[in-house]
Specification:
The chain has about 300 residues and is α/β, with parallel strands linked by helices. It has eleven helices and five strands. The chain has helices at about 1-25, 40-65, 80-85, 125-135, 155, 200-210, 220-240, 240-255, 270-280, 290-300, 305-310, and strands at about 110-115, 140-145, 175-180, 185-190, 195-200.
Length: about 300
């Protein structure tokens, strides 16, 4: 008898608990069971999914409008490569100026830039950027030859005339170029005291560009396209003949509809690509658009010092 009462008591408690949980379910949260219409439940779930997709579509549309981004739809057969994405359009308005309108405050201590580079592959872009930086800062530039260099061309030895006639402490930036044998491209010692090193001509150029123009990254589209060309420049330096031919093809295609690689004026992309192409020893015959572009760069006063180092 006692067991029967306990069973009834437990049964009532279970039924009461189930009734309480059932009341917590909302209309949309009802779980279809054997007694409900499965088609109606499926239709309800489908409508919920469509409603959520519509909300996502509206959100993406709002973000696209806010950030002036265009939606690009590609088929499964379309392959988008970096060499195609950097080409842009003839109406490109993504220009990134070399110089900023507002000068970066470097503080009271002179800003040291120490570059180690192999004279067999001189980082010509850094010589161009030195000329650009000289319009923004007072730059004290010197060059030295390391004992690891056996043969040193005279035009590279005296590229900076060892600081000219100014004193080091009268300047804002000290640019030191140390000619030495390096295996993996030039290196930049940003802070000799902390031994902070940046490797590769493209990466060094990126650093100096942001020193000259702190607003460089404000034009996201332009800065991204420049970075893509700089990546291709590194590929050209380290690539084989097939890879280099692909880079030149992309370069020639872009220059068929534009005078400069990014935007409508000279940019860091042009400077670095010009440098690596002029460093190539095996390639002498370039496509017509590339030749015209090289000559356009040569006529720019920023390239005078670098041309003297060739």
């Amino acid at each position: 008898m006692g067991n029967t009462l306990d069973f009834c008591k437990d049964k009532k408690e279970v039924e009461k608990k189930e009734e309480k949980e059932s009341n917590l379910l909302t209309k949309n949260d009802e779980i279809p069971n054997a007694e409900s219409d499965p088609l109606a439940a499926l239709e309800r779930k489908q409508n919920e999914i469509f409603s959520r997709l519509q909300c996502l579509r509206d959100t993406v549309k709002q973000l696209s409008t806010k950030y002036t981004m265009s939606t690009v739809v590609t088929s499964s057969k379309t392959a988008v490569t970096s060499s195609k994405s950097v080409q842009g359009t003839s109406s490109d308005q993504s220009s990134v100026p070399l110089l900023s309108q507002q000068k970066l405050n470097l503080g009271d201590v002179i800003h040291d830039l120490v570059v180690s580079a192999d004279p067999d592959s001189p980082p010509l872009s850094l010589l161009v950027l030195y000329k650009v930086a000289s319009e923004m800062f007072k730059v004290f530039a010197t060059s030295y030859v390391h004992s690891s260099v056996v043969v040193m061309p005279q035009n590279l030895r005296e590229v900076f005339q060892n600081g000219g006639c100014t004193k080091r402490d009268e300047n804002e930036v000290a640019f030191t170029l140390l000619w030495k044998k390096v295996q993996n491209g030039p290196t930049l010692m940003v802070n000799p005291h902390k031994q902070t090193v940046i490797e590769g001509e493209s990466n060094i150029a990126r650093y100096i560009q942001r020193l000259i123009n702190p607003d460089f990254d404000k034009c996201v589209v332009g800065a991204t396209r420049i970075d893509e060309w700089l990546d291709l420049a590194e590929q050209y330096v380290r690539g084989n003949k097939k890879e280099n031919a692909a880079v030149l093809k992309s370069l020639n295609s872009k220059l068929g509809s534009a005078e400069w690689l990014v935007g409508n004026t000279l940019s860091l992309a042009d400077i670095v690509m010009w440098s690596v192409i002029n460093q190539s020893k095996g390639q002498k015959d370039f496509p017509s658009n590339v030749k015209n572009w090289l000559q356009r760069c040569d006529r720019n006063p920023y390239f005078d010092l670098a041309n003297g180092a060739l």
